[in-house]
Amino acid sequence: MQEGRDLTQHVNIFNQIIIDLTQLDVKIEDEDKAMILLCSLPSSYEHMVTTLTYGKETIKVEEIIATLLAHNQRRQNTGESSHADGLYVKGNHDRGRKSENEGSGRRNSRSKSRGKKTFRCYKCKKPRHMKGDCSKWKKESDDKHDASSKTVNVVQNENLDCSDGDMLSISTTQFTNAWILDSECSYHITPNKDWFSTYMFVNSGSVYLGDDRCCNIVGIGEFKIKVYDGTVRTLCDVGHIPDLKKNLVSLSTLHKNGLIPKADEDRETIRIVKCALTVMKGKITVGNIYKLLGSTVVGGAHSVESYDDNTNLWHMRLGHLSEREMVELHKRNLLHGVKSCKLDFCEFCVLGK
Questions:
Q1: Do residues 246 and 180 lie in contact, with contact meaning Cβ atoms separated by under 8 Å?
Q2: pLDDT tens, 212-245?
Q3: CA Rg, the chain, in Å?
Q4: Sign of the CA dihedral with 154 first, then 159, 162, and 166 last
Q5: Contact (CB, 8 A) for 201 and 306
Q6: Is residue 263 in some structural domain?
Q7: Where is this region: Disordered (predicted)?
């Protein structure tokens, strides 16, 4: 806007430009609209612009327009013109240092520079730029984006033919020998065969990993784990997957067997409790992963079995179904690989009762 032009007409032209851009699907933020309007004002409005922008987190173009029009109306009512640079022009003319055209050009250039100096970024409070051009704001946005993409816990929970269970894919190279408490894993699983205290070969069962790999369960057995208080606990129905990289304790499996996960008040510790007894504890680590507090008791497999009867496997798959109900399913040929429905002693079934 040039000095001497009517402010109301200038605002109308500005609104018409915004409407035309909107019809062209050009989206401009409300704060940017306000800053564009303020930048277009001459230097005579410098103090007004400073008043409207100083100390405010956000500005709205509607408020800016209303304030400017009200200010312009007051000036007209008191007999003042909508510009206030007459003395400045006259002073240059009387001094005779520059011609009227040269003075006008200098005045216009100073108007633009002065107007720009008055604007401050709402993020860093520094002059001469807006929030969209602020290096501090861009750096914080990039840091937030990088932090959110450093560690990704990927869970695929799709009904695919090759998948009998789901598990968590942990993007870290740590926890090779530790046990991870996982809420999405369908079974207790591990790649370490040497850790089993009892072991049985199986020929069916698989899990679908987060990187689209389908890994077979080649065996199941029991683990002995020395927990936080020195007590040795037995982890039953643990699946052996050689292609796996982590040892996962299924919280859903523990919950089915009456062991309830509870978070402590410090928001860093999770306790696995049964009634009033704390059976296990986990501590949150890097990447918001809960690591079991304890260590595996390694002593080799005391007993190893290998046969094709999948009765115990189907018993676990069906949520520890009773032997009588499994016989009914077996009569209907619904249990693949089951030769007899004779179940071995199941500790979790006893605890569940």
A1: yes
A2: 778 888 888 888 888 888 888 888 888 888 888 8
A3: 37
A4: positive
A5: yes
A6: yes
A7: 74-150
